[in-house]
Amino acid sequence: MQFKCSKMGEVKYYLGMHVERDVEKGVLRLHQRKYCEGLAQKYGLQDGGKPATPLPLGFTVEPCADEEVVGESDRKLFHSMVGSLNYAANHTRSDIAFATSRLASVVSRPSHEQLEAAKRLVCYVSATASVGLEYSGVRQRLQRGAADVKSGEMLLSCYTDASFNSVKADGTSIGGYVCLLGGGAVSWRSKKQNEVGLSSCETEYMALHHWVKEVVWLRRLLEELGVGQEEPTVVFCNNESAVKLAKNACLHGLTKDIRPKWHWVRRLLDKEVWLEIVKTHQQAADIFTKRLAEADHWKGMKLAGMSVH
């Protein structure tokens, strides 16, 4: 089977994403400036201000009472805005992954306050349209144990996190992760956990189970692309108890209620993944599990492999 192809030079624009390459510096940038700037115009929010964070201070997303639900036209508007924002969040704007995930959870019954939050998020994305992802050939240094240090240009690493009991309506937690390669984010997600954890240790342990599966899949993909990872991928978690539980099956006194499937991560230790404890202020996945203050939000964006210009 043959296909007719046209050689059009280096890619500059693909599926709504701008592709910028600096050969001399060895840097590749991806962003959606045109798309993000267009959102404010699409929804008539050109004069909506320039918020510094995705969500307002103290804002939480919970199911609302019947009398607080918006009308049908506003519900459709909310649905459209969340869908448009989610497209950006899934491609280059990982900084709004938490916000869009939470707003999407009430897409069928949004309140007036939640509708205003969605409008504010559109304004934030439009005001920060140049934010994107950046990859480079700078060698990375990843700590493994007390003395063992890995270094290389194409080392995959992962950060996982969970905010305990953050969804008050059902007692569940928000989990999140980000995988980094070449200095930039290549995979990320913010998602409400389906089961209720009885402690922060349990919620972080469940997060490890979910997101380590993504690490395994990425390792397989990189191998097919000729960038195989020779050593276990370092996975960072800031909950010491969860890391110890994964490494030591004897520590089960307070976690007997944990379902057997969560222990799957133990089978991968020292083979495909290596768990390391990371300090909270260095936790790159923090931005995917909670709303952060302005300074912490922008710091978190850089930790999570985003390019802030």
Mean pLDDT: 86
| CATH-defined topology of the largest domain | Nucleotidyltransferase, domain 5
The multimeric state of the shown protein is single chain
User: CATH superfamily assignment of the largest domain?
Assistant: Ribonuclease H-like superfamily/Ribonuclease H
Shape: globular
Q: Which parts are unreliable, with pLDDT below 50 for 5 consecutive residues or more?
A: none
Span of the ends, CA to CA: 45 Å
Classify the beta-strand content into a percent band.
15-25%
- Gyration radius, rounded: 21 Å
Biggest β-sheet: strands ordered side by side in the sheet: 1-2-3-4-12
Series of H and E elements:
EEEHHHHEEEEEEHEHEHE
Strands, total number: 12
Tally of individual domains: 2
Estimate percent helicity. Answer: 25-40%
Coarse structural class: alpha+beta
| Main β sheet profile | 5 strands, antiparallel
CATH architecture of the largest domain: 2-Layer Sandwich
By CATH reckoning, the class of the largest domain would read: Alpha Beta
Number of helices: 7
Question: What are the key terms here?
Answer:
309 residues; alpha+beta; Nucleotidyltransferase, domain 5; 2 domains; five-stranded mixed sheet; 31% helix
Summarize the structure.
The chain has 309 residues and is an alpha+beta fold.
Overview of this structure, please?
With 309 residues, this protein is α+β, with helices and mostly antiparallel strands. It folds into two domains: 30-127, no CATH class; 139-307, Nucleotidyltransferase, domain 5. Helix content is 31%, strand content 23%. A five-stranded antiparallel sheet has the order 1-2-3-4-12. It has a five-stranded mixed sheet with strand order 9-8-7-10-11. Strands 5-6 form a two-stranded antiparallel sheet. The mean pLDDT is 86.
